[in-house]
Specification:
Elements (H helix, E strand, L loop, with lengths): L2 H18 L13 H4 L1 H11 L1 H8 L3 H15 L12 H14 L3 H8 L3 H18 L10 H15 L4 E11 L18 E8 L5 E9 L7 H4 L1 H8 L8 E2 L6 E2 L2 E3 L10 E2 L9 H27 L11 H22 L1 H4 L9 E2 L10 H14 L6
Parallel strand pairs: 1-6, 6-7
Antiparallel strand pairs: 1-2, 1-8, 2-3, 4-5
GO molecular function: hydrolase activity; metal ion binding; nuclease activity
Family: Belongs to the HARBI1 family.
Pfam families: DDE_Tnp_4
Length: 384
Amino acid sequence: MDPHKTACIAIILALATKRRVKRKRWMKEWLKKREEYSHILLLNEIRDTEPEDYKNYFRMNDITFDKLLKLVTPFLLRKNTNMRQCLPVKERLAVTLRYLATGRNFEDLKFSAVMSPSSVSAAIIETCEVLIYVLQDYLKFPTTSEEWTEIAQEFGDRYQFWNTLGAIDGKHIAIKKPANSGSLYYNYKGFFSIVLLALVNAKKEFIMVDAGMNGRISDGGVLYYSKFGALLQQEVLNIPEPASLPKITERFPYVFIGDEAFALRSNLMKPYSQKALTPERFEFNKRLSRARVVVENAFGILAARFAVFQKPINLDPQKSASVTMACCYLHNFLAKETQQPYLSTEITEYDLVNLQSTLIRNCGTDAKTTRERFCNYYNTEGKL
């Protein structure tokens, strides 16, 4: 046979064989029926008939959900294409809130959301980043002395710890081991984590959150390397001038309060060591602890409402930080929109892991003197 004809026949046979090869589906059949199987249909039903079930599912009522949906829609709305239909914004928000509320993995969520695991993951991360953006008005860092003074007044009125600008604390947020990270994120408790540093007002609301530092960082250095710590050291926070306390004219500086994990500073008060504790120092510690409990309560509510924190977050550190920050912004949103029903959340037995107590001893003389002045006041004119 003519070699040219032989070559042509071979090409024709090859093409015919290629056509018979079954192409890989770009989407599973059941995923194509999202509108038919979507959990949104069921949620729309229980929204009117079983409002408590609806609230338990999203950790918020229908009115609050609708307000949140309205905020995120302009930033999550996508146009359908000839190839496929985009995920509706309501479904993106629904699967994100469900993930944050339960911590279920993406393989589990794919069935209730009727999305592929990769779509679930992408939708959750994008939605978390949008939540952080649209809820900025609910978590605002004070920028004027008047705003700081208002916070201090609330601490004084509620907890009788005067001139307090906020209670600060940090927690380790468990994550999966990041690829090629060695022991960078391995903390003193023996698991991988990022650090969440937060400042809380007297109403258990976050006024500053910083998430993402590696869990291996020395706990005494968490504040130092944070954005807030940098502003504190540079003295550019517009902290009010010293002011007098009730029953006396002597002026005291405005301070932040923390626990043993932080170094004592002239503008950051911490408890006295349990060693050689005098009755006066014990009284000071008790008063400080009474005011500082707001930050522990805020973290407790956060962990109770958002079960994503009750197991390692199966994402890389940057995405884990976005999830963490989104929960903090939602915490404030729910605290302001629902008030007592949210803030009265029963704190679960699960506790986020504390920062390790710092061993820093070289605090300045001014810091020690300031604490002694507060200690003396709370044992004399300021005693309850």
